[in-house]
C-alpha cells in the first residue's frame, strides 16, 4: 500500500473548503415556498392514507354487520 502514496494524483494544497452560497448575491435561496409545499404534500399524503384506512375499516364493519 505504500506504493499508492507515491502515485497519488490529489494535491492537498488545492483542496477547497465548502462555503455555503451567500444570500446577499442570490436572495432566492431564502424562499420558503418549496419547504411549505413539501410540508403540505406530507400532510395531504398522511390524510389520504388515513382516509384510505378508515374507508377500509368502514367496509369491513358494514360487511361484518350485514352477515349477522
TrEMBL record:
The keyword Transmembrane applies. One of its GO terms (biological process) is protein insertion into ER membrane. Keywords: Membrane, Transmembrane, Transmembrane helix. It holds the Pfam family ASTER. It is found in: Membrane. GO terms for molecular function: protein folding chaperone. Coiled coil: none annotated. GO terms for cellular component: endoplasmic reticulum membrane. The chain crosses the membrane at residues 39-61. Residues 1-31 are annotated as: Disordered. PANTHER family: CGI-140 (PTHR13193), PAT COMPLEX SUBUNIT ASTERIX (PTHR13193:SF0). Belongs to the Asterix family. This is PAT complex subunit Asterix. The lineage of its organism: Eukaryota, Metazoa, Chordata, Craniata, Vertebrata.
Amino acid at each position: 500500500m505504500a506504493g499508492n502514496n507515491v502515485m497519488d494524483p490529489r494535491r492537498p494544497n488545492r483542496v477547497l473548503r465548502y462555503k455555503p452560497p451567500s444570500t446577499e448575491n442570490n436572495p432566492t435561496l431564502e424562499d420558503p415556498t418549496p419547504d411549505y409545499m413539501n410540508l403540505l404534500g406530507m400532510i395531504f399524503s398522511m390524510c389520504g392514507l388515513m382516509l384510505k384506512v378508515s374507508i377500509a375499516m368502514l367496509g369491513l364493519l358494514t360487511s361484518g354487520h350485514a352477515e349477522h
